[in-house]
Each structure stands twice: as C-alpha cells, then as structure tokens.
Amino acid sequence: MGYRNLVDCHIHSDNSNDAHHSVTLICEKAVSKGLRAISITDHCECLKYQEKQYATTCRQSNFEVLKARTVFEGQLVISSGVEIGNPTRDLLAANDVLKNKFDFVVASVHRIKGKKKSFKELDYAREGNKPELLMPRYFDDIIETVDWNGFDALAHLTYPLRYFPEHLIADYDIFSERERIEYILKALAKNGKALEINTLTKEYKAAAITSDMHPCFEIVKLFKELGGEYITVGSDAHAADMVGNKMVEAYDMALEAGFKYVTIYEKREPISIKIQ
C-alpha cells in the first residue's frame, strides 16, 4: 500500500559518533524519497555525557537542523530532536541536555545496570547473557525510564532482540515478560507518551536476526488495547540511504494495530498525521 504522508522520526546525523552523513545530505535523501517530515534524533548517552562531549554534539545537531529548515522550507518538515539514552543513570546529564529547545525527545536503554557494555557489544557466549537473564533487567530499566517521564516517545522497546544470536532467541518468548511490558505500555498511555515502531532490522545490522519491527506487532496492538494514543515511526537510520527505510511497513503495522494516525512533534507537542 502506498502512503502520501510518510514521516521518519528517528534519524542520526554525523553528530552521532556512530553515524555517517550530514543533516543536509539526510534532508536531500528524505526529499528524494518523498517524505513529508523527519526528526533528527542524535545520540546523547547519559552514562558518557562528559566523556563523549554530548553537550556540544547535541547543540551542534540542533543548530544544523535550524539551518536546514531554511534550505528545505516548503519541501520538508524538519524537527530537532535527541535520543536520550539511559537518562535515569545520570539525571544531571539528562536535565542538562534537555535545556536545548528540542522539538522531540526519544528515550532509550542501550545498556543495563551491572553491564559495562551495550547489548550491541555483549558476548552472548557467556552464561550470564542469556535472554531469560537479561530481559527482566532490561525491562526494569525501561520501567525506571518510563517512570522518569521526561521524554516524548519510547524507542525500540524490544531493542535487545536485534543483537541476540539466533540460537538464543529461537525459543524465547518475549511475552514471558508480559507483566513488565504491560506496565510500560500502560504508563506510556496514561502519561500521553508515544510508543515508537522502529524499523531497523537485519538488513542494516548484521548482528540482528529478526525481520520484525521493534517492538513486534503484538506489542503495538497491545499498546492500543491498553489505551495508547500516540505512535511514532522511525528508521533509526545511521546513514542517509537508510532514511525512510520500511516506513510503509511501519504504517501497515500501525493501521493493522488500530492506529489511524502517526505522530510528529513540534516544541515537544504531538501533532497527528493521518495514515492515508
């Protein structure tokens, strides 16, 4: 199915240390793909706020978005944003970066308490890194983030599944954590926060083994059933060519789950875009 109003609300420019292209190039690619709106959401990992100089890179990202708006006026809506990682692990850092006048704040957890490495970097041959041991701790960190409530959308709820080797998750049931998942979804709904459909899958990350979105359809549908109102969609692109990747599939999922709108943000306020 074709859509007239595709948006991509999770994109990293070269102001993120793991991304590759400028805001300008990203905007050019978005226009060429017919996107209506994008959000630049460069990284701010609160656990390494000083070490990685995120205060500087976030300001630079914000500034480049402001410049791009002038260049692409009438062609593309461009939101300034940030992906704030593990905000509750350093609230001073989180509060400092949020002094920037972002349009959109997406929250994530890439590394759980007690682990020095992110899910992307963990050695899954170790006995202590089995899904049934890691996932309860991951969802507990997500719960802490949701209770903090200083964001607009929750990113890639089932993020660790990107990186689990196939043999580890072949028999793993994500709904073995249903109680925690329901708590998260109910809290998002109650607080008027969005759940993100993140389309970054094995086609981009060689370590990923699932072709599903993050989270999967069943969780997106459950969010709707539990009162969720806002859905964002994002490619999590770290290169310009990936901008808008699988947005059609994400829209299909949102519609099937019962959502008639996706959401973008301006000055931290939700704006509903009809899926049509």
Structure overview:
- The chain is an alpha/beta fold and 276 residues long.
- It contains eight helices and nine strands.
- Strand 8 (261-266) and strand 9 form a beta hairpin.
- Helix 4 packs parallel to helix 6 (178-190).
- It is globular, with a radius of gyration of 17 Å.
In short:
This protein is of the alpha/beta class and 276 residues long.
Rg over CA atoms, rounded to whole Å, is: 17 Å
Strand fraction band? 15-25%
Structural class: alpha/beta
The residue-averaged pLDDT reads: 94
Q: Which series of helices and strands comes N to C? A: EHEHEHEHEHHEHEHEE
The tally of strands reads 9
From the spread of the alpha carbons, the general shape counts as globular
Percent in helix = 25-40%
The largest sheet is: 7 strands, parallel
Provide a count of the helices: 8
Distance between the termini: 10 Å
Low-confidence blocks of residues: 203-211
**Order of strands, widest sheet:** 1-2-3-4-5-6-7
